Amino acid sequence: MTHTHRTATAARSAAAHLRRRGWERERVENVVFGALAWLMRAFLLVITVVPLVYLVALSARPLESLLADPLRILPTAAEATLDGYRRALAPMEEGGYDVGSFLLNSLFVGLGTVACALLFSVLGAYAVSRFHFPGKRTLGVLFLSVYLFPAVVIAIPLFVLFTGMGLRGSLVALVVIYLAQTVPVALFMLRNFFAGLPESIEEAAAIDGCGGLRTIRHVVLPLAVPALVATALYVFIVAWNEFLFALLFLLETRESWTASIGIALLDNQDVAPTVLLAASVVMTLPIAILFLFAQRVFAEGLTAGATKE
C-alpha cells in the first residue's frame, strides 16, 4: 500500500508539474505573440498615418514657412492657413487651378464604374454560381486571363478604337475601359460569396412565388451586402486612382481631366508646393472617408444577414 501510495503521489506530482510547465509555456507564448502583434499594429499605424498627417500639416503652412523649414511638421497657430486649398479648388477664372472639377470628374467616373460593374458582376456571378453549363469551370480562368497582359499592351489598340469612334476625351469611354479592368475581379469576388449562400433560401423564395430577378433583389442582395460593399470599394478605388488610361484618353481635354492626371499635370507647371499638397489631400480624403464608412456598413451588413428569417 505504501509503495502504491508513493507511486500515485509521484504521478500526481509529475502531472501537476507538466500542467504548470504547459501553462507557463502557454503564458509566455501569449505574452510574446501579443507583444509582437502590438508592435506590428504600431508599425503599420506609423507607416500609414504619419505620411497622411505630414501631408495635411504641410498643406496648412504658408509657402514661405514651408520653404524655410520643410522638416517641421505642424504649423503654428499664427501661420496656419487654408490658402492652398482655396487656390487649388477655385476655378481658373478666379485665379485657382480648378481641382474641384477634376474631383467631380473622378467622382463621375468612379460612381459610374461602380454602378455598371455591380450590375454586370451580380448577374454574372449569380449565374455562374447557380446554373450549370458547359465550360463553367474555365469561365473564371478566361475572365481573369485579362490580367495576364499589362495595361500598356491594350492601351494602343483601345486608343485607336476609341479615336475612330470619336470617344477620345470622353469620360464615358473611361468608364467602359475601367469596366473591362474591374468586372472580372468583381465577378470572381461575388461568385465565391453567392456560392456560399444556401440554395434553400432561394428555394423558399421560389415557393412563395418569387421569380429569378425578384429573388436576387429581395433575398440574395440583402444577404450579400458585405460582399457588395467590398466589391464596390475595390472598383471605386481602381477608378479613382487609375492614371495610365486617363492620361492617354483625356490629355487633350482639360475639362475632362480626372484628379489623378490633373494633379500630376499641375506638378509639371509652375504651381506652388502648398497648392499641390492641398490638392493631394482633397484627393486622398474621399478614399479615407470611404474606408471609414465601409467599416460601419460591413458591420451592419453582417449583422443584418445573420438575423434574416
Mean pLDDT: 78
Largest sheet: none
Instruction: Write the H/E string, N to C.
Output: HHHHHHHHHHHHH
The CATH class of the largest domain is Mainly Alpha
- Total helical elements: 13
Instruction: State the helicity in percent bands.
Output: over 70%
Straight-line distance between termini = 65 Å
Total beta strand runs: 0
Instruction: List low-pLDDT spans.
Output: 301-309
What is the fold named in CATH at topology level of the largest domain? MetI-like fold
Output the structural class: mainly alpha
What overall form do the CA principal axes indicate?
globular
Radius of gyration: 28 Å
Count of all domains: 2
- CATH homologous group name of the largest domain: MetI-like
| Corresponding CATH architecture of the largest domain | Orthogonal Bundle
List the helices and strands and how they pair.
Elements: H1 2-59, H2 63-68, H3 83-89, H4 99-130, H5 136-144, H6 151-164, H7 171-196, H8 199-207, H9 212-223, H10 225-241, H11 244-250, H12 259-267, H13 273-306
Helix pairs in contact: 1-13, 3-13, 4-7, 4-10, 4-12, 6-11, 7-10, 7-11, 8-9, 10-13, 12-13
Characterise the protein shown here.
The chain is an all-alpha fold and 309 residues long. The protein has 2 domains: 2-59; 99-306, MetI-like (MetI-like fold, Orthogonal Bundle). Helices cover 78% and strands 0% of the residues. The protein has 13 helices and no strands. α3 crosses α13 and α7 runs antiparallel to α10. The longest helix is centred in the N-terminal third of the chain and has 58 residues, at 2-59. Residues 301-309 have low confidence and may be disordered.
